[in-house]
Write a structure and sequence with these properties.
Blueprint lengths: L7 H10 L4 H13 L13 H10 L7 E6 L5 E6 L5 E9 L2 E5 L3 E3 L8 H5 L1 E4 L2 H14 L8 E4 L9 H12 L12 E5 L3 H9 L5 E5 L5 H7 L8 H10 L8 E7 L7 H10 L5 E7 L13 H13 L3 E4 L21
Parallel strand pairs: 4-7, 7-8, 8-9, 9-10, 10-11, 11-12
Antiparallel strand pairs: 1-2, 2-3, 3-4, 5-6
This protein binds S-adenosyl-L-homocysteine.
The site of S-adenosyl-L-homocysteine has 16 residues, from strand 8 and strand 10.
Length: about 350
Protein backbone atom coordinates (compact mmCIF):
# COMPACT_ATOMS: atom_id res chain seq x y z
CA UNK A 1 0.00 0.00 0.00
CA UNK A 2 1.12 3.57 -0.73
CA UNK A 3 0.15 6.11 1.93
CA UNK A 4 0.45 8.98 -0.57
CA UNK A 5 -3.10 9.51 -1.76
CA UNK A 6 -4.73 8.77 1.59
CA UNK A 7 -6.78 11.57 3.11
CA UNK A 8 -5.29 13.09 6.26
CA UNK A 9 -8.17 11.48 8.20
CA UNK A 10 -7.24 8.10 6.69
CA UNK A 11 -3.64 8.60 7.78
CA UNK A 12 -4.95 9.22 11.31
CA UNK A 13 -6.93 5.96 11.11
CA UNK A 14 -3.82 4.16 9.91
CA UNK A 15 -1.81 5.49 12.85
CA UNK A 16 -4.44 4.10 15.24
CA UNK A 17 -4.35 0.74 13.46
CA UNK A 18 -0.60 0.70 14.04
CA UNK A 19 -1.17 1.23 17.75
CA UNK A 20 -0.30 4.94 17.82
CA UNK A 21 -2.40 8.06 18.39
CA UNK A 22 -4.24 10.04 15.73
CA UNK A 23 -1.70 12.76 16.33
CA UNK A 24 0.97 10.59 14.69
CA UNK A 25 -1.21 10.39 11.60
CA UNK A 26 -1.44 14.16 11.51
CA UNK A 27 2.33 14.44 11.78
CA UNK A 28 2.68 11.98 8.91
CA UNK A 29 0.25 14.02 6.77
CA UNK A 30 2.22 17.16 7.53
CA UNK A 31 5.50 15.55 6.45
CA UNK A 32 4.15 14.15 3.21
CA UNK A 33 1.73 16.81 2.02
CA UNK A 34 2.92 20.03 3.61
CA UNK A 35 6.66 19.40 3.56
CA UNK A 36 6.79 17.03 0.59
CA UNK A 37 8.99 14.58 2.49
CA UNK A 38 8.84 10.93 1.41
CA UNK A 39 11.80 9.53 3.35
CA UNK A 40 10.61 8.01 6.63
CA UNK A 41 14.14 8.33 8.02
CA UNK A 42 13.85 12.11 7.73
CA UNK A 43 10.60 12.30 9.72
CA UNK A 44 12.52 12.97 12.89
CA UNK A 45 9.64 13.78 15.24
CA UNK A 46 7.93 10.41 14.62
CA UNK A 47 8.95 7.64 17.03
CA UNK A 48 11.29 5.08 15.49
CA UNK A 49 9.05 2.09 16.32
CA UNK A 50 6.06 3.82 14.68
CA UNK A 51 8.08 4.40 11.53
CA UNK A 52 9.24 0.77 11.58
CA UNK A 53 5.68 -0.55 11.88
CA UNK A 54 4.54 1.81 9.16
CA UNK A 55 7.33 0.66 6.84
CA UNK A 56 6.18 -2.95 7.28
CA UNK A 57 2.65 -2.08 6.26
CA UNK A 58 3.05 0.62 3.66
CA UNK A 59 5.31 2.68 1.45
CA UNK A 60 5.59 6.43 0.99
CA UNK A 61 5.95 6.73 -2.76
CA UNK A 62 5.91 9.65 -5.15
CA UNK A 63 6.41 8.92 -8.86
CA UNK A 64 9.86 9.83 -10.19
CA UNK A 65 9.82 11.62 -13.53
CA UNK A 66 11.49 9.31 -16.03
CA UNK A 67 12.21 12.22 -18.33
CA UNK A 68 11.92 16.00 -18.10
CA UNK A 69 11.88 17.91 -21.39
CA UNK A 70 12.24 21.68 -21.51
CA UNK A 71 10.49 23.80 -24.13
CA UNK A 72 11.80 26.99 -25.75
CA UNK A 73 8.96 28.84 -24.04
CA UNK A 74 9.95 27.86 -20.49
CA UNK A 75 7.44 25.08 -19.98
CA UNK A 76 8.58 21.58 -19.04
CA UNK A 77 7.03 18.20 -19.72
CA UNK A 78 7.39 15.57 -17.00
CA UNK A 79 6.94 11.99 -18.17
CA UNK A 80 6.25 9.46 -15.45
CA UNK A 81 6.64 5.71 -15.79
CA UNK A 82 4.10 4.13 -13.45
CA UNK A 83 4.26 0.87 -11.53
CA UNK A 84 2.68 -1.09 -14.37
CA UNK A 85 5.05 0.46 -16.93
CA UNK A 86 2.39 2.73 -18.42
CA UNK A 87 3.35 6.34 -18.96
CA UNK A 88 1.62 9.63 -18.22
CA UNK A 89 2.75 13.22 -18.43
CA UNK A 90 2.32 16.49 -16.57
CA UNK A 91 3.26 19.91 -17.92
CA UNK A 92 4.76 22.76 -15.86
CA UNK A 93 3.93 26.17 -17.30
CA UNK A 94 5.41 29.39 -15.89
CA UNK A 95 3.52 32.59 -16.63
CA UNK A 96 4.46 35.84 -14.86
CA UNK A 97 4.08 35.09 -11.17
CA UNK A 98 2.14 31.87 -11.80
CA UNK A 99 3.46 28.38 -12.09
CA UNK A 100 0.71 26.14 -13.41
CA UNK A 101 0.85 22.34 -13.44
CA UNK A 102 -1.33 20.47 -15.91
CA UNK A 103 -2.04 17.00 -14.51
CA UNK A 104 -3.33 13.74 -16.01
CA UNK A 105 -6.16 11.68 -14.54
CA UNK A 106 -6.14 8.62 -16.80
CA UNK A 107 -3.70 6.67 -18.96
CA UNK A 108 -5.10 7.57 -22.36
CA UNK A 109 -8.71 8.64 -22.78
CA UNK A 110 -11.86 6.92 -23.99
CA UNK A 111 -13.82 9.86 -25.37
CA UNK A 112 -12.34 9.98 -28.86
CA UNK A 113 -12.51 13.70 -29.53
CA UNK A 114 -11.44 13.85 -33.17
CA UNK A 115 -8.92 16.67 -32.78
CA UNK A 116 -7.14 15.22 -29.73
CA UNK A 117 -4.13 12.93 -29.98
CA UNK A 118 -4.75 11.43 -26.53
CA UNK A 119 -8.24 10.53 -27.77
CA UNK A 120 -6.75 8.75 -30.75
CA UNK A 121 -4.58 6.62 -28.47
CA UNK A 122 -7.57 5.21 -26.58
CA UNK A 123 -8.22 4.42 -22.93
CA UNK A 124 -5.94 2.21 -20.84
CA UNK A 125 -6.85 2.80 -17.18
CA UNK A 126 -7.76 5.25 -14.44
CA UNK A 127 -5.08 6.82 -12.29
CA UNK A 128 -5.30 6.37 -8.52
CA UNK A 129 -5.59 9.37 -6.18
CA UNK A 130 -2.01 8.55 -5.25
CA UNK A 131 -0.86 8.91 -8.85
CA UNK A 132 -2.76 12.19 -9.28
CA UNK A 133 -1.49 13.83 -6.07
CA UNK A 134 1.91 12.27 -6.82
CA UNK A 135 2.24 14.38 -9.97
CA UNK A 136 1.92 17.57 -7.89
CA UNK A 137 4.31 16.37 -5.18
CA UNK A 138 6.83 15.28 -7.83
CA UNK A 139 6.64 18.63 -9.63
CA UNK A 140 7.12 20.53 -6.38
CA UNK A 141 10.16 18.37 -5.56
CA UNK A 142 11.65 19.13 -8.95
CA UNK A 143 11.44 22.89 -8.49
CA UNK A 144 14.48 24.76 -7.28
CA UNK A 145 14.83 27.62 -4.83
CA UNK A 146 11.73 27.10 -2.74
CA UNK A 147 9.44 27.48 -5.76
CA UNK A 148 6.10 25.71 -5.68
CA UNK A 149 3.37 25.00 -8.19
CA UNK A 150 0.80 27.80 -7.68
CA UNK A 151 -2.08 26.62 -9.91
CA UNK A 152 -3.28 23.16 -10.93
CA UNK A 153 -5.34 22.38 -14.03
CA UNK A 154 -6.84 18.94 -14.65
CA UNK A 155 -6.23 19.22 -18.38
CA UNK A 156 -3.67 16.53 -19.05
CA UNK A 157 -4.37 13.04 -20.34
CA UNK A 158 -7.77 11.62 -19.57
CA UNK A 159 -11.24 12.75 -18.54
CA UNK A 160 -11.27 13.77 -14.86
CA UNK A 161 -15.00 13.23 -14.33
CA UNK A 162 -14.76 9.69 -15.73
CA UNK A 163 -12.39 8.91 -12.83
CA UNK A 164 -14.63 10.58 -10.30
CA UNK A 165 -13.74 8.94 -6.97
CA UNK A 166 -9.99 9.34 -7.43
CA UNK A 167 -10.47 12.91 -8.69
CA UNK A 168 -12.45 13.97 -5.63
CA UNK A 169 -10.07 12.19 -3.25
CA UNK A 170 -7.14 14.02 -4.87
CA UNK A 171 -8.98 17.37 -4.75
CA UNK A 172 -9.65 16.92 -1.03
CA UNK A 173 -5.96 16.28 -0.35
CA UNK A 174 -4.83 19.17 -2.56
CA UNK A 175 -7.25 21.67 -0.95
CA UNK A 176 -7.00 20.58 2.70
CA UNK A 177 -5.61 23.73 4.28
CA UNK A 178 -4.38 22.18 7.52
CA UNK A 179 -2.97 18.77 6.70
CA UNK A 180 -3.08 18.61 2.91
CA UNK A 181 -1.22 20.60 0.27
CA UNK A 182 -3.28 23.68 1.10
CA UNK A 183 -4.14 24.86 -2.41
CA UNK A 184 -6.98 27.35 -2.64
CA UNK A 185 -9.79 25.74 -4.68
CA UNK A 186 -9.82 28.88 -6.80
CA UNK A 187 -6.35 27.93 -8.06
CA UNK A 188 -7.57 24.54 -9.24
CA UNK A 189 -9.50 23.92 -12.47
CA UNK A 190 -11.23 20.69 -13.48
CA UNK A 191 -11.82 20.39 -17.21
CA UNK A 192 -14.40 18.07 -18.74
CA UNK A 193 -15.69 16.96 -22.14
CA UNK A 194 -19.14 17.59 -20.64
CA UNK A 195 -20.19 14.62 -18.52
CA UNK A 196 -23.40 16.10 -17.16
CA UNK A 197 -23.96 13.73 -14.20
CA UNK A 198 -20.34 14.31 -13.14
CA UNK A 199 -20.73 18.10 -13.36
CA UNK A 200 -23.85 17.91 -11.17
CA UNK A 201 -22.13 15.66 -8.65
CA UNK A 202 -19.02 17.82 -8.51
CA UNK A 203 -21.21 20.84 -7.84
CA UNK A 204 -22.63 19.10 -4.78
CA UNK A 205 -19.20 18.27 -3.27
CA UNK A 206 -18.76 21.83 -2.07
CA UNK A 207 -15.16 21.78 -3.25
CA UNK A 208 -15.45 25.22 -4.91
CA UNK A 209 -12.93 24.39 -7.63
CA UNK A 210 -13.16 26.03 -11.05
CA UNK A 211 -14.97 24.20 -13.80
CA UNK A 212 -13.86 24.23 -17.42
CA UNK A 213 -16.00 22.89 -20.23
CA UNK A 214 -14.47 21.66 -23.47
CA UNK A 215 -17.22 23.03 -25.70
CA UNK A 216 -15.62 23.46 -29.14
CA UNK A 217 -18.90 24.03 -30.98
CA UNK A 218 -22.20 25.79 -30.33
CA UNK A 219 -24.35 23.45 -32.39
CA UNK A 220 -25.12 19.78 -31.87
CA UNK A 221 -24.42 19.07 -35.49
CA UNK A 222 -20.80 20.19 -35.34
CA UNK A 223 -20.18 19.16 -31.74
CA UNK A 224 -21.38 15.59 -32.27
CA UNK A 225 -19.00 15.26 -35.20
CA UNK A 226 -16.05 16.50 -33.18
CA UNK A 227 -16.96 14.95 -29.84
CA UNK A 228 -18.93 11.69 -29.77
CA UNK A 229 -19.83 12.41 -26.12
CA UNK A 230 -22.25 15.06 -27.41
CA UNK A 231 -24.57 12.25 -28.48
CA UNK A 232 -25.04 11.35 -24.80
CA UNK A 233 -25.36 14.90 -23.43
CA UNK A 234 -26.05 17.54 -26.04
CA UNK A 235 -25.20 21.22 -25.98
CA UNK A 236 -28.49 22.29 -24.40
CA UNK A 237 -28.28 19.69 -21.60
CA UNK A 238 -24.67 20.63 -20.99
CA UNK A 239 -25.30 24.37 -20.72
CA UNK A 240 -28.28 23.73 -18.42
CA UNK A 241 -25.99 21.77 -16.07
CA UNK A 242 -23.34 24.50 -16.22
CA UNK A 243 -25.88 27.15 -15.25
CA UNK A 244 -26.53 25.21 -12.05
CA UNK A 245 -22.88 24.76 -11.08
CA UNK A 246 -22.41 26.70 -7.82
CA UNK A 247 -20.15 29.74 -8.24
CA UNK A 248 -18.65 32.14 -5.73
CA UNK A 249 -19.45 35.86 -6.30
CA UNK A 250 -16.75 36.61 -8.88
CA UNK A 251 -16.13 33.09 -10.09
CA UNK A 252 -16.89 32.07 -13.67
CA UNK A 253 -17.03 28.89 -15.69
CA UNK A 254 -14.33 28.53 -18.34
CA UNK A 255 -15.24 27.40 -21.83
CA UNK A 256 -12.54 25.95 -24.04
CA UNK A 257 -13.02 26.25 -27.75
CA UNK A 258 -10.40 24.76 -30.06
CA UNK A 259 -10.37 26.68 -33.33
CA UNK A 260 -10.39 24.38 -36.36
CA UNK A 261 -10.05 25.87 -39.81
CA UNK A 262 -13.34 25.88 -41.75
CA UNK A 263 -15.00 23.62 -39.15
CA UNK A 264 -16.05 25.81 -36.22
CA UNK A 265 -14.32 29.15 -36.79
CA UNK A 266 -16.72 31.22 -38.94
CA UNK A 267 -18.30 34.52 -37.83
CA UNK A 268 -21.62 32.65 -37.72
CA UNK A 269 -20.07 30.09 -35.33
CA UNK A 270 -18.91 32.97 -33.14
CA UNK A 271 -22.38 34.53 -33.09
CA UNK A 272 -23.91 31.15 -32.23
CA UNK A 273 -21.53 30.87 -29.29
CA UNK A 274 -22.53 34.35 -28.12
CA UNK A 275 -26.22 33.39 -28.17
CA UNK A 276 -25.53 30.13 -26.36
CA UNK A 277 -23.59 31.76 -23.53
CA UNK A 278 -25.97 34.66 -23.01
CA UNK A 279 -26.56 34.98 -19.26
CA UNK A 280 -23.94 32.36 -18.37
CA UNK A 281 -21.11 33.59 -16.14
CA UNK A 282 -18.52 32.50 -18.64
CA UNK A 283 -14.95 33.10 -19.69
CA UNK A 284 -13.99 31.77 -23.09
CA UNK A 285 -10.55 30.40 -23.89
CA UNK A 286 -9.97 30.04 -27.61
CA UNK A 287 -7.28 27.45 -28.36
CA UNK A 288 -5.88 27.58 -31.89
CA UNK A 289 -5.61 23.94 -32.96
CA UNK A 290 -2.27 22.27 -32.17
CA UNK A 291 -1.18 20.06 -35.00
CA UNK A 292 -0.12 16.43 -34.73
CA UNK A 293 0.94 13.93 -37.36
CA UNK A 294 -1.99 12.66 -39.37
CA UNK A 295 -4.47 15.11 -37.86
CA UNK A 296 -7.49 15.79 -40.08
CA UNK A 297 -7.67 19.47 -39.02
CA UNK A 298 -5.73 22.68 -39.45
CA UNK A 299 -5.22 25.80 -37.38
CA UNK A 300 -7.05 28.83 -38.84
CA UNK A 301 -5.00 31.76 -40.11
CA UNK A 302 -4.38 34.48 -37.52
CA UNK A 303 -6.83 37.06 -38.93
CA UNK A 304 -9.60 34.51 -38.70
CA UNK A 305 -8.74 33.71 -35.08
CA UNK A 306 -8.75 37.40 -34.18
CA UNK A 307 -12.01 38.02 -36.05
CA UNK A 308 -13.65 35.20 -34.08
CA UNK A 309 -12.38 36.66 -30.82
CA UNK A 310 -13.59 40.18 -31.76
CA UNK A 311 -17.16 39.00 -32.19
CA UNK A 312 -17.14 37.50 -28.69
CA UNK A 313 -15.47 40.55 -27.17
CA UNK A 314 -17.91 42.92 -28.87
CA UNK A 315 -20.76 40.93 -27.35
CA UNK A 316 -19.25 41.48 -23.90
CA UNK A 317 -17.85 37.97 -23.43
CA UNK A 318 -14.48 37.80 -21.69
CA UNK A 319 -12.37 35.94 -24.22
CA UNK A 320 -8.68 35.12 -24.45
CA UNK A 321 -6.72 33.32 -27.11
CA UNK A 322 -4.67 30.67 -25.41
CA UNK A 323 -1.53 29.98 -27.37
CA UNK A 324 -0.57 26.61 -25.99
CA UNK A 325 2.78 26.11 -24.37
CA UNK A 326 5.21 23.32 -25.09
CA UNK A 327 4.23 22.73 -28.69
CA UNK A 328 7.85 21.98 -29.60
CA UNK A 329 8.07 19.18 -27.02
CA UNK A 330 4.71 17.53 -27.63
CA UNK A 331 3.28 19.05 -24.45
CA UNK A 332 0.61 21.36 -25.87
CA UNK A 333 -3.16 20.86 -25.47
CA UNK A 334 -4.18 17.70 -27.27
CA UNK A 335 -0.63 16.51 -27.97
CA UNK A 336 -0.06 14.29 -24.96
CA UNK A 337 0.67 10.74 -25.91
CA UNK A 338 3.36 8.58 -24.37
CA UNK A 339 4.47 5.16 -25.58
CA UNK A 340 3.18 2.34 -23.39
CA UNK A 341 5.97 -0.22 -23.52
CA UNK A 342 9.73 -0.42 -22.75
N1 LIG B 1 -10.75 15.47 -20.99
C1 LIG B 1 -10.78 16.79 -20.40
C2 LIG B 1 -9.42 17.23 -19.91
C3 LIG B 1 -8.42 17.51 -21.02
S1 LIG B 1 -8.29 19.23 -21.25
C4 LIG B 1 -11.35 17.78 -21.40
O1 LIG B 1 -11.43 17.45 -22.57
O2 LIG B 1 -11.75 18.85 -21.00
C5 LIG B 1 -7.41 19.36 -22.74
C6 LIG B 1 -7.98 20.45 -23.61
O3 LIG B 1 -7.24 20.53 -24.84
C7 LIG B 1 -9.41 20.17 -23.97
O4 LIG B 1 -10.16 21.34 -23.99
C8 LIG B 1 -9.25 19.61 -25.37
O5 LIG B 1 -10.42 19.70 -26.11
C9 LIG B 1 -8.15 20.50 -25.92
N2 LIG B 1 -7.49 19.92 -27.09
C10 LIG B 1 -7.44 18.62 -27.45
N3 LIG B 1 -6.76 18.46 -28.60
C11 LIG B 1 -6.35 19.68 -28.97
C12 LIG B 1 -5.57 20.16 -30.07
N4 LIG B 1 -5.05 19.33 -30.96
N5 LIG B 1 -5.33 21.49 -30.13
C13 LIG B 1 -5.81 22.32 -29.18
N6 LIG B 1 -6.54 21.93 -28.13
C14 LIG B 1 -6.82 20.63 -28.02
Amino acid sequence: MNVVGLLPSELEDLAVELGASRYRGRQLATWIYRKGEVDLAAMSDLPKDFRARLAERAAVEVPEPERVTASQDGSRKLVFRLGDASRISSVLMPDDDRLTLCVSTQVGCGFECRFCLTGVMGFARNLSASEIVGQVLAANRLLEGGQRVTHIVFMGMGEPLANYAALVQALRILTDAKLGLGYSPRRITVSTVGLVPGIEKLGRENLKVNLAISLHAGSDEVRSQLMPVNRSWNVETLIAAVRKYPLAPRQRVFFEYVLLDAVNDSPEDARRLVRLLRGVRAKVNLIPFNDWEGAPFRRPALPRILAFQSILLDAGLTTTVRWSKGEDIGAACGQLREPVSA
